[in-house]
Design brief:
The complex is a heterodimer of chains A (944) and B (179).
Chain A (H helix, E strand, L loop, with lengths): L2 E2 L9 E10 L2 E7 L3 H7 L6 E2 L6 E2 L12 E4 L2 E5 L10 E4 L25 H5 L5 H11 L16 E11 L3 H12 L4 E4 L16 H13 L3 E4 L3 E6 L3 E6 L2 E12 L3 E3 L12 E3 H11 L1 E2 L3 E6 L2 H12 L3 E7 L15 E3 L3 E7 L5 E9 L5 E7 L2 E5 L2 E3 L2 H5 L3 E5 L4 E6 L4 E3 L9 H19 L32 E3 L4 E2 H9 L5 H8 L12 H11 L21 H5 L12 H6 L2 E6 L2 E7 L6 H14 L2 E4 L4 E6 L3 H8 L12 E7 L5 E11 L2 E6 L4 H15 L4 E4 L4 E7 L3 H5 L17 E6 L2 E7 L7 E7 L3 H9 L6 E2 L2 H10 L34 H10 L4 E7 L11 E4 L2 E12 L4 E8 L9 E5 L5 E7 L8
Parallel strand pairs in A: 2-8, 9-10, 9-14, 10-11, 14-28, 16-24, 18-19, 18-24, 19-20, 33-43
Antiparallel strand pairs in A: 1-17, 2-3, 4-5, 6-7, 6-8, 12-13, 13-14, 15-25, 21-22, 22-23, 26-27, 29-30, 31-32, 33-39, 34-37, 34-38, 35-36, 36-37, 39-42, 40-41, 41-42, 44-47, 44-49, 45-46, 45-48, 46-47, 48-49
Chain B lengths: L5 E5 L2 E6 L3 H7 L10 E4 L11 E4 L4 E6 L4 H10 L7 E3 L4 E6 L3 H6 L17 E5 L2 E10 L2 E8 L1 H17 L7
Antiparallel strand pairs in B: 1-7, 2-5, 2-6, 3-4, 4-5, 7-10, 8-9, 9-10
The chains are: A alpha+beta (944), B alpha+beta (179).
Chain lengths: 944, 179
Amino acid sequence: MMYRLPQIPGEWIDRSQPLQLEFEGDAAQGFAGDTVTAVLAASGILRLARSFKYHRPRGIHSFANHDANGLFEIDGVPNQRGDVVAARNGARVRAVNTRGGVARDRASWVEWLAPFLPVGFYYKAFHGSNFASWERRIRSFAGLGSISADAPKLPTPKRYAFCDVLVIGAGPSGMAAALTAADAGARVLLVDENARLGGSGRWSGLPENVFADQLARISAHEHIEVSTTTFAAGYYADHWVALVEPERLTKVRARAVVFATGVIEQPAIFRNNDLPGVLTGSAAQRLLTRFAIAPGRRVCILAANREGYELARALRDHGVTVEAVLDLRASNDQDAAGLAGVTCLTGVEPIEAIAGSQGAVRALRVMTPDTGGASRVRTFPCDAVLMSVGFAPAGQLLLQAGATLHYDTQLGQHIPAKLPKGVFAAGRVAGEYDLNERERGGRAAGAAAAAYARGEPMSASVDHPRAFRQVSHPYPVYPHRKGREFVDLDEDIQVKDLLASVQEGYDSLELMKRFSTLGMGPSQGKHSNIPGANILLRARGKSFADTALTTQRPFYHPVPLKHLAGRGFHLARRSAVHDRHAALGAHWMTVGGWQRPQYYARAAASMADCIAAEVRAVRDHAGLIDVSTLGKIEIFGPDAGAFLDRMYAGRFSDLKVGHTRYGVLLDEAGIVRDDGVVARLGDHHFYFTTTTSGATAVYRDLLLWNARWRMDCAFVNATGHRAAFNFAGPSSRAALQPLTDIDLSEQAFPALGARQGLVAGVPARVVRAGFVSSLGFEIHVPFHAGATVWDALMKSAPTICAFGVEAQRVLRLEKGHPIVGQDTDGLTNPMEAGLGWAVKMDKPFFIGQRSLRIHQQRGARQQLVGFVLDDESVAVAEANLVIDGGEIAGRITSLARSPTLNRTVGFALVAPRLAGVGGVLAIRASDGRQVAARVAPTPFVGAT
Amino acid sequence: MSAGAWVRVVTARRIGVKGPFATAVLGELGLAVPERANTWSALRGPDRDDAGDIVARLGNTEFFIEEQGEAAGVAALERQLANDIAGAYPVLREDVGLLIGGPRAADALAQVCNVDLAGADIANRTIYMALMIGVSVLALAQRSEAGVVYRIWCDPSFANFLLSELEKITHELPAGSDR
């Protein structure tokens, strides 16, 4: 039975602030500073959880924020890590994998099925047609916790941070590294997963006054920033480390990183090693030194290193009865010194832990050497079994960083063999166990990291003390004929499961993990991967020296999804007249990142009616659409015309000033990728538009190509800096003329003209545009003046109507203008899109020209054609297929009901044999029926 | 406005010029020309660290100018560039300028930008071209009487998005410094 001790120096709790929480109906008493698990332990609650598969009772195991035993639902939020989550007064705590609570779990009968659930059972039993059914049943039965849809949304912002030296782990070596690096002038960020600094130094002999002095120096150091309750979850290229704090994720970019991540204590594998009351030695040390909790009243220690004896001395000093120190080694050297009166045996082999009435341990049965080389079975009554038999390096971040680790047989642990640039390791992860070694290693790593951060070269060698003492037993695995020797407590994996995996051929670590699910639980194998690998290697007659550790993908430690989601930014561009659109009742759509009016709502009118009304307004009078979203690019310089000749399929060097020309942009495969109108505003000055979604990519390509061609021209991307409006319709000229000093007459400003002048008093570039109407003016003005010009145009005549993107699509379709990306696809060349007239193959060079010649030789694969629908009784939609001879022969790319023609028209990409005007297209509608359409000449609408 | 950090819009006139003769044009008008790319200088007069009117050199031959008040320098440059000078081309800069300050200003920016603006090189007057939550920006840090402030410019079509997100963040930040 665990219990709270009288006050001890350095404890983390504030005994002046008692608190109480409720665990499945029982009250548990603690203090401010306690974690949830600590409160339960201090209250003598041993059974904290039920295991994932067999629903066996489980208690504290690592107390290190690793294993599934410490997962709780706290105040309705599942899977909280009780080992580190601070206890709150009044909190309601529940286990996450029970039916009816830990004490009376109705699912505990599952364990009786264990003989019928061998490893790989799911793979073998639930496949084929019944898989979905079984999957649903298993998923509903399994799982850790449940999510409440009503849970409050907690803000979890992400942020970036920067430092010269990032030190991960604030034990003795990490603190020494941080201080040394900071003293050398480096900006240091020191992070630790625990609430306070110190790590295992608190129970490794660090004198209290030295420890306090280090803490004070770190706290006062202007170059050190400390982040506690923070774990490093993943390492990415160039020293980019993801740090997870309780309420946010920080992306740190460091110049150098010191990994002082320590080690993870590994369990001994013997029968019933999962009983409540069987825990690692370091778990007991954490309970003792941080929260003044004794792990039991009468304990047995399974030892295989000096740390086990240090634990025995510490417990005895606090009044705990140490029943025996049972050493797995043949000799304990001088480790047992100072433990007079305590039974210390060597050469011990554990047989089993024996459960008491509530499932917790009540005794440990072992085999001990007897006289004459014989052995005998002895049973030690106890209420806690503490395992101090070895460690594994917390080295996964190092592996992610590109370090290589090798197995040191003397130490019994993997340690770094080669570190990448800017990466340093210190402390127990590097094999340094004794306090002086750890501090010395930390200082060396801190100094080296600070030097590297200053730009000094890094030494290629990894300097470690060579006189290692053995800290890990080579094979603390003791199979029992009745099983229940758990290797992975998260997934209830036993020794026999791993041996069965090997026998079935899954005899590499990667395969065995997947087949057995070893290491796939919440602890991600922190206590099971090394023992599992050990068992595998032993079964294959190999050792760690023969193999390399696997590198886990980030994240090294489970990260709440809310941390990854962050704030959820939704990029949205707004034009200069966004508020005007809103006032007109715009229904919004997102196009290329811009918020655009899809249409403007009208009272008691459907969307279709609104769009039709906007179309009719443009055809009958004049309409205004905001086309600020178009890409708008300027090219200056003597080579501007020649440059455009290279970029575009058409010719622009001969374009006269004050004129425009349609341009189509190809990729190197001769495929249409963008289009727009190019205006020549001066001898050395062109201004052109791109599609809304293509602006950024086109501009980037201009810069890229000119970096190669080195032509004398300069580029300006004015896309966001200019507002643009298309004022279109038969009345547009008359309405616009009073607002501008530009002569808009047909003679002075013919089609394809471009002029500069004032519109509503604002300097403007005006282009004759025919995209939606035969008569139209595209007016480009500085962003700040956009609203002024929009307002003036809207008031220029009583019949002016704003129209949105949907009306524009109908209007341009009526005029027979394809939209790149909608009426073309990733294989459409300009000839197939009906844009061959815009291609000048006689130019010496343009991007895509060579490929286009090949396309021409091969002939068209498809052809864009206009069509009218003969039968409108069947609903046809864009992307419906064109069928010919029972085969797919094309698809509809655009379709709209034309208010002007009062019929449905569209574009389709079809096989060239079907492209003749007057030909019939058989369209398979969405409901499967076939509808006839007739290929028609474009434009569908003529002079309006 | 939070005591931890605040953000406001700066009203000023802005213009850009680029091309091989941009430097000469600025010099002719008596406007400062920063010697190095990615640095800024006071537009005119004493070259103060906290200058409001600035010339930023964005590359070897590209400059960005911001001037508040009468903006005579920007107006003069506009007039000059309207003459179609070979090798000096006008750049329409309708950027929205933001000023972010307060003891936790850097913390606010750390939530939106992957460039270390808290460690911005103020002494060498570095100007940064960075990405803030998907928006391309120019940014610099200056010392002022109110402490370090950050000046940011972005395309006006992104301004509403960036400003509203920064306002949300600054309002959520508690008072006091992050350390």
